[in-house]
Amino acid sequence: MNSRERILAALNLKIPDRVPYFESAIESEILLEVCGRGDLNEKEISKLFHRDHITWWIFPAPFVERKKVSNRDFFVNGLIKNDEDLKLLDQMQYYVSTNEGIKLMEISDPNNKKIYEWAAKFIEDKEEFAATAMTCLGIDPTINSMGLEGFSYLLYDNPNLIEKVLDKYVEFNAVVVENLCKIGFDFIWAGDDIAFNSGPFFSPKIFRELVIPKLKVVTDKINIPWIFHSDGNLMPILDDLLSLGMNAIHPIDPNCMDIEEVKRKYGNKVCIVGNINMNNLRIGTPKQVEQEVKEKIEKIGPGGGYIVSSGNSLINGLNPENVKRMTEAIIKYGKYKSNGNLVYYQN
């Protein structure tokens, strides 16, 4: 199998030749430390890290105040607090993969032809890799644009305002994903953080009655395989979440979710994507990382429907030797026999 065939087999709960590797993002310092360059293109990154896909981005920038800490932006305050602030949504901004890299652009029309020309060019050059479009459904930028505290109060004080903001994002994103599905992407990754380690941002009832119907406006337009991403503990709402029809869940946050439990309860319904511990990648030893990869493949991989990834993404600050050992261990331990069992390479 080539990379595209491998990752699509797993997303469709079939058995590939080996367990695939997915990574939503690999930041520049990791690239620089591993190979001496921080400006690799997507295909170069995937070849270097044995990753089975390449990524193209169109992701909304929320309306927030930002604070820079250690060269990383953090959201500190949402800017939409009342109905008057809704005018901000007339100036939607998206991070878009262009021919010159990812750019922040103001986009008023989700059918903007230039965007899809860039996307089509990206797909044309994908070679053997699975081409993924990275976007969101809409609840993530809604929460961030209001601030989590403001969003929480508004759930009770003015839920109609939340619906107006969420409607704007889901209506826009529904057009975007429909267009992306038409031009040849192999799968979509939709990232919407909706949970703390302790549990979801909202009750199952609110999620079921307010959020799910809105998100379905987008998911009903997706007719290719897709992955849903959220950090945190999704277990209290996972049954409702799966009603959206995704092919896979990522990253099964290892800090608060039991990947074996998820595989046992839902592995016949959805592909499991995850969940090598970020703390292990940061402060563990290469031997510990290799052992974790081996154990995850051994426990979750049999029968197919498993894709290895980090517990989030390969952010700056991780130990590059641990990152290298993780990607090497996937190749070393991940090969399938025809009956769906795994064959482990020996040193």
Give a structural overview.
It is a single chain. A hairpin with a 5-residue loop joins strand 12 (335-336) and strand 13. With 347 residues, the chain is of the alpha/beta class. It starts with a helix and ends with a strand. The protein is built from 13 helices and 13 strands. The chain has one domain (3-343): TIM Barrel. The mean pLDDT is 95. Helices cover 41% and strands 17% of the residues. The longest helix is centred in the middle third of the chain and has 24 residues, at 159-182.
Q: How many individual domains?
A: 1
What structural category arises from helix and sheet content? alpha/beta
Helix-residue proportion: 40-55%
Q: What percent strand?
A: 15-25%
Unreliable stretches: none
Name the helix and strand elements from N-terminus to C-terminus, one letter apiece. Answer: HHHEEEEEHEHHHEHEHEHEHHEHEE
Strand element count: 13
Looking at the structure, the CATH topology is TIM Barrel
CATH architectural group:
Alpha-Beta Barrel
Helix run count: 13
